[in-house]
């Protein structure tokens, strides 16, 4: 029993029924906020905040008024809601951050990590310093208190800003940067908040600024490591719960809270960073360890939890606003204005000063001036700002005047951004012209409408015949539809003409979009694993973006770039060639095989899309050009696949077998579903059949191992030189040979360099250059052998001109092999003759390898200065 302030003798017992009723009402308001925001053309956060303020003000009015006591239980239940900073920071914030980390396109975000990191960290730092210095002369507070206010109000609510780009034809990359910035923005602000609170807390040892800055790397690194470790363990556990999707979801719910609490309480690291790392780890690892339906159910659950958490945190925080503004004074309005102006100036410095510099450095996309103005005005503050301000007001060690001004300035600033900026945001977007279609889109829309109506008329005509409707009604409706079609055709004819170049670009964007849809369909039908679908979807998004910015040339450049071996692959080749570490190369090569086989199958389906959809809108000339571009891309893919077949014989066949097996399993599943729907088999039998299917699916979800040692054995057998070799000698030779991979342009043997090994070309082509003359060496040939036999370097340079797989044998083992292999001796004799070098084969064969000198070499009259070897 606790006495309520202002209501003498009123006995308080928290009525659970009233509390549940209040929560039910809050959820009704949350469910209605979306349609209401759409109708009022306002951000949802503004509606939620306004609703929360109205509820808080009404509860205070009915509790303190003498007009009626009828609503006292409801008002008391609202005023006694357990709202504190811990509720926001420990319950709601981990949910929101984990959801964003789980659903963000991580691969694409990594492409833009430089501008994201700079904007997130630098923008918060700039806002903190500028707001703190602006308040210092007027607030009468110490510098640390002013900087604390700056850190609190520097966090932005990303929802309104991201909605700008989703409702306008903004570049996807720009929206990604804004969303990625918001993910790290809260972490940077909360870290600064903790540092400044430490300076202001009475009774605590104030940390030095140098010590606080030195601890920042620990906050980030330790939090990230803890979040990664927890998420990896959780994903492993979810993989073992494969038949229990509800159990998998339950495990995922524990991850953000465990990461936040362990990081914040046990190791004194950043809980927000730990949650971000955990979410990103689950984002990357879980799709490959869970079935597609189970992972879709998990993400749907987190979508709902994030929707509830985001809405509740706004409404509950807004309910506190009347309480935080209880001690508002007239002079505080001036301080709120200073805070607003300083925050806008700090954001303008980043958007109009730092962002153009990142664009010049080519680490950030170009952001047009209208978009920067929209981001500037759309930097709304919300629940995190109010939660941090509430944490200060609840702290017993903070001086009272600091607590009062922090609560009032943070709340007043949040109200300004929500009620002024939020309500005028769409007007600003319209004034900047971001809500209007481009001239090209306006011209295309008329043609799309005309083509669509023509298709609809044909379909409706067939349907009316099948339905047997009255002819008079059908005739009247057909006449009305024909009039509408004529108007659409006239509008298309009167519109601005679209150049073929623009039509090709639009067609390629549609083609890349269809490619993305086909990849999604293949993933949903389990024709490709999640890790492969994720990689190919990322590449399809890059293709769409490159085509939008570069047109036809951008599409071609991106398609070729997708087939190139990246930096990681080149680093893996170096590890294999120089250190003998084959694990990274095996994994990356297997992934490349998997991607190319799948891409070839996807591309083969795009020609039908051109004929059925693009042809009707853009015409025959554009369709033929798109077919040509698609054929070229298919040839590039086939060329890469053939190169991989030569380098790794047999592995491509295994990948194609898996495609057939996946298709067969999908058809088998569809057949069981149909038999169940027809009532021919019962659910018990279907469940038993599904167990066998699930086992076979799991076997196919794993990628077949690419054993480079086995591949080397198969490559040795392809050489005619070694066909007649006894099996024991060939096995010994396989152990002595080393596999080396070379990219185009790699110099394998330089001019005048004395080789210590002999190269055998298993696949690819090598160019030999001597005295300005070029000679090509291909599969089955060798080089370096004459220099090793003669014991002197040759005046020739060997360079790979394609992706090559080579087998190398060091000189000691090569000379030993030469002593007992007649086929190799004959090959060296023929090679020497072609190069004008005479070798005494009898003496060469009879002399033990250890005693061989260069005495078997006698230059012919045609080649006294030496030839390539």
Topology, element by element:
Blueprint (H helix, E strand, L loop, with lengths): L15 H25 L3 H21 L7 H8 L5 H19 L2 H6 L1 H27 L3 H10 L5 H9 L5 H29 L8 H32 L4 H22 L4 H19 L2 H28 L1 H4 L5 H31 L8 H9 L5 H12 L5 H33 L6 H29 L3 H24 L5 H25 L5 H34 L3 H13 L3 H21 L2 H42 L3 H27 L5 H19 L6 H10 L9 H10 L1 E5 L4 E3 L7 E7 L2 E5 L2 E5 L4 E2 L1 H6 L6 E4 L3 E7 H10 L1 H13 L2 E3 L1 H6 L10 E3 L10
Keywords summarizing the entry:
73% helix; four-stranded antiparallel β-sheet; mainly alpha; 869 residues; globular; 33 helices; disordered N terminus
What does the model show?
There is one protein chain. With 869 residues, this protein is mostly helical. Helices cover 73% and strands 5% of the residues. It contains 33 helices and 10 strands. It has a 4-stranded antiparallel β-sheet with strand order 1-8-3-6. A hairpin with a 2-residue loop joins strand 4 (766-770) and strand 5 (773-777). Helix 7 packs antiparallel against helix 9 (172-200) and helix 11 packs antiparallel against helix 12 (271-289). It is globular. The termini are far apart.
E-strand count: 10
Number of helices: 33
Strand content: 5-15%
Question: Terminal Cα separation, in Å?
Answer: 99 Å
Range of helix content: over 70%
Q: Write out the strand line-up for the largest beta sheet, numbering strands in chain order.
A: 1-8-3-6
Radius of gyration: 35 Å
In the predicted model, the low-confidence regions spanning at least 5 consecutive residues are 1-14, 850-869
Helix-strand category: mainly alpha
Q: What is the residue-mean pLDDT, rounded to a whole number?
A: 78
| Overall geometry | globular
Largest sheet: 4 strands, antiparallel
Q: What quaternary form is this?
A: single chain
